[in-house]
Design brief:
about 230 residues, globular, about 15% strand, 6 helices, Nucleotidyltransferase, domain 5, alpha/beta
Amino acid sequence: MSSKKSSKKGGKGKKAKADPLDEIKNFAAYVRERRYQVIITVDPGLEGAIAFVTYLQYLVVDIPVTAVNKKSAYDEQRLWEYLRVFLGDDELRPRVFFAIEQAQPGGGGSFGRGKKPCPACKRKPGDTPLTAFRVAWGCAMFQLLMVAFDVRRAYLNIAAWKKHAGLIGKDKESSRLAAQRLFPGADLQFKYHHNRAEALLMSRYVEAKYGINLAGGRPPRREEEE
């Protein structure tokens, strides 16, 4: 989890581990005080991330997970606590544009096993129906929230946003390096932070495509699908 502002240091020179929920609340306070617009973008999946981007500030957090029967599962309660900061606030909710990537995981048999990776989507050799189910489950949770709270929203085509970012045919490391250039304060230091990177990069595509003025101005138009 990262933001433009680094975490305060704890005792003996070590960085105190920031609570993502506290950082989201602080980010929301910044947006509220300045009456800015905010883009929330989601790279879905158990290893995915959620980015919050406004004028001159950004924050990215990992999608919360927990252990169920010794296996990773979405922590729905914690996820709702993250998103409720914006979606449950009558003042902030109209300032939100929420976008989720239309993930396209592969599966077994003819659905994806043994095939070459898709250059623009998440399909890769060895993906199984269980992989597809987990990603679809995650996507559905976010989609339900977007509809239930009637926020301005978009479902992002993977090839479209990656083309905008110049990432078609490139690997995950290219996404991380691109995000480091655009969001130099984000915590993207490790290669496994590529999902954080892609959540952040999607926000730039949303900002350009939907004409969002993060510093204020007219509300962004609603387009549910591309």
